[in-house]
Amino acid sequence: MDKAPDPSVIAAVTAWFDVHERALPWRSTSPWGVLVSEFMLQQTPVDRVLPVWTAWMERWPQPASLAHDSLAEVLRAWGRLGYPRRAQRLHETARIITDRHDGQVPESTEELRALPGVGDYTAAAVQAFAFGRRSIVLDTNVRRVLSRTMDGSAQPKAHITATERQRMDALWPPDDQTAARWSAAVMELGAVVCTARNPSCPACPVQPECAWHAQGRPESVAGPRRQASYEGSDRQVRGRLLAILRESPEPVPGRDLEGAWSDSTQRERALSSLLTDALVVESPPGHYALPL
Q1: Of 271, 236, 238, whose CA–CA distance to 253 is shortest?
Q2: What are phi and psi of 282, to 5 degrees?
Q3: C-beta pairs of 171-178 under 8 Å, 24+ apart in sequence
Q4: Would you call 225 helix, strand, or coil by DSSP?
Q5: Is the omega angle on the peptide bond into residue 284 within 30 degrees of 0, that is, cis?
Q6: What CATH code is carried by the domain that includes residue 263?
Q7: Is 247 marked active-site?
Q8: Of 150, 218, 237, 251, which alpha carbon lies 20 to 30 A from 161's?
Q9: 109 found inside a domain
Q10: Measured in whole angstroms, how far is the alpha carbon of residue 53 from the centre of its chain?
């Protein structure tokens, strides 16, 4: 990405966003609501997040309300969103915000990055979408739009490099308001138009300027990236074990977990990993429950 997009591209994408922006509830909420949405949206589609986020914010509208509840209740409310360590880290984050930041989501990069589960992307997203600040928001959707538009590449490289981050910093609008709006707009374009598969190029506001479209939409040299299969994975087993524990108000005898998965070796490995991650506790011996 050696060149920055023409200012007309930025203007065209933000104008498109003015008309086509989805009415997602976390776009008109508190900084805490934005932070919760960013945790939930990691590797989880919007349609699955919407009902959980809504119920979550009704129950825990402030970090303090979540901090004062048990991890067991947090994991139950997280339900089947997957990657339950996100819920665990969000619970830890709520406690830190309550204890160290007077219950207010911090604004600075350093303070945000110090929160459990908050990396470069999440910190930048909270700054842009919660506080309207200029930050370089680089998720998969944003990187794909810019890779196609500017480089003619179907997909960006697997990992963000320091060079890419510097180039993005050079191209982002300089003022807070325009930069925050651009971040949201280009992300939306990647999510609903310039998608990884079957992009809707005729609906794209920057199709005439898109290098990838001009080249005939060539496939990535490396081919499409494939996620590890969920079916049959330890992740699936962990999910089934947690589902049983979420439904039980009392510790569950180990024998009652046997029906979760027929392969006893894999089941025990998954249970052991949940214990190691402190997502499950053994108490009394031979009985398992969500942590308090």
Answers
A1: 271
A2: -105, 110
A3: 171/1, 171/4, 171/5, 172/134, 172/136, 173/10, 173/134, 174/134, 175/134, 176/132, 176/133, 176/134, 177/132, 178/10, 178/14
A4: coil
A5: yes
A6: 1.10.10
A7: no
A8: 218
A9: no
A10: 12
Asked if residue 248 is part of any domain, the answer here is yes
The per-residue pLDDT for 1 is 45
Q: Exactly one of 21, 38, 188, 247 is catalytic; which is it?
A: 38
Average pLDDT of each block of 10 consecutive residues along the chain (292 residues)?
A: 64 96 96 98 95 98 98 96 96 98 97 97 98 96 94 91 88 94 97 95 95 91 64 94 95 96 96 97 96 90
Element (H, E) at 162: helix 162-171
Give me the domain span that covers residue 256.
Answer: 234-289
- Assess if residue 208 is contained within a domain: no
User: How many alpha carbons fall within 13 Å on the CB side of residue 148?
Assistant: 30
Please tell me the predicted confidence (pLDDT) of residue 227: 64
* Domain assignment of residue 29, yes or no: no
For residue 191, the model assigns a pLDDT of 96
